[in-house]
Design brief:
The protein has helices at about 45-55, 75-80, 85, 105-115, 130-140, 155-165, 185-200, 220-230, 290-300, 305-320, 330-340, 375-390, 410-425, 455-460, 495-510, and strands at about 15-20, 25, 120-125, 145-150, 165-170, 175, 180, 205-210, 215-220, 235-240, 260-265, 280, 350, 360, 365-370, 395, 400-405, 460-465, 480, 515, 525. It is α+β, with helices and mostly antiparallel strands and about 525 residues long. A hairpin with a 3-residue loop joins strand 16 and strand 17 (about 400-405).
Length: about 525
Amino acid sequence: MNKRSIIEPGNKHDKRSTTGNTRTVAMDDDLILDSPGIAPQGSPTPLVTALKASAGQDVATFHFPGHNRGRAAPSSLAQLIGIRPFLHDLSTVPELDNLFAPKGPILEAQKQAAKLFGSSETWFLIGGTTCENQAAILATCSPGDSLILPRNSHISVFSAMILSGALPKYIIPEYDSSWDFAGGITTSQVQCAIKELENEGRKAAAVFVTSPTYHGICSNLSKISQLCHSQKIPLIVDEAHGAHLGFHPQLPASALQQGPDLAVQSTHKVLSSLTQSSMLHMSGTLVDRERICKCLQTLQSTSPSYLLLASLDAARAQLSENPEMIFSQAWELAAEVRNLIKEIPGISVLEYQSFSSFPMIDPLRLTISLWQLGLSGYEANKILSRDYGVICELVDTRSIAYVINLGTSREHAQRLVSAMKDLSATFLPVQRVEESAESTNCLPFVDSKICLSPREAFFARKKRVNIRHSIGEICGELICPYPPGIPVIIPGEIVTERALDYLLRVKMEGAVISGASDPLLSSMIVCGV
């Protein structure tokens, strides 16, 4: 029997390798970072520095994760991304701090983020803004409390109501039929919702606003904040698409500059952290800080990714280098692209006038309509991605949305403009009948009625029925096209013909429907009460 050798203690600098099915990937000594010990205080990137220092220590490791700093990294993934990510994919070792009881580099990184963004406290999250929305609502709403929110909120908000037991008081957002999507909500709508609850003998536990929307439409948060605070009602802002706001004179003000109590941001969307990493910001004293901490610990993994956490620290540091001008090039490029596309026949670009009740639209979000060419958003996107290699962020029935960010190159911007010109030249002379781009003239959930709370419906007995027999039944599942992740039907609502027709239409046009137990939409789960 062959004996396996043990490396002698004096051979410190052993060549590490990953083991795979057919190939070994060597990890050279020069990839082992040479910064032992704890991150020094005052570091511009405390968590990045601590991670680098920990990974560079000459230690015998007997802890998670199982790839053991890359020594056992799967060869297929190591060949794709290299060894460095594995080397820095560390677990909760003492020098890296504890996400749920931070005292070292995580705490310092969060303090630096709070200073930059203007919050009283900031938390790093590795569950995306989905986790943030859930934590914010759990921290402000108890079972039976009323939550005022726009009906076109993100899917995570509806799961938060299931978890918290909050009762929704919906606001139907403004809608533009020519674009076939909704905008934000107004101060008068919030005031009306508060008054209606008062007439029912109830008070809102919180008001939830999405600003900016997926299409970049910003609500007047200053006025909504003043209204809420006059009633001692905390304001939660889903700013998933607006972590960059306030960092250039031509960008709309950030949520925190307008006085909400909680602002949730997807740092990974327009800023440069890794996907799934986000920040939750608090301001004021209306929300219980300790309850937020408990909610975050309840919802997040006890084994957070330090790569994700460090990427938040790095993204904040990148923004801190030149916070007022870092988006100058992106803004100039977006303005140039917008002006060029506006001149193309048969193509429209979303402008402020379409949603004039709202103060601004994010200039880095380009929403483009091609319905005058006889193309739905789904049809146009298929051509653009397949034939031109132009990849969008969001597809709708009548439009496509593109995001200009810090990494957008001029060459890619030129490719987008050229592709739009080609589409115009190809389809404008055809004058197709606009069947697939036909507007619904109103939101699919405008006439929805609630029979059960989201939580009651979630736990109710269920049955499956033919999709056409579901009209008039109480929906038992959350069904939404994704993106944008806005549910068309949610548990507890009566299934309407309008909502069902919309789902079937967008599915036929190419939308991906999430949440439905039957992906073909030939049947639906309803509540058997």
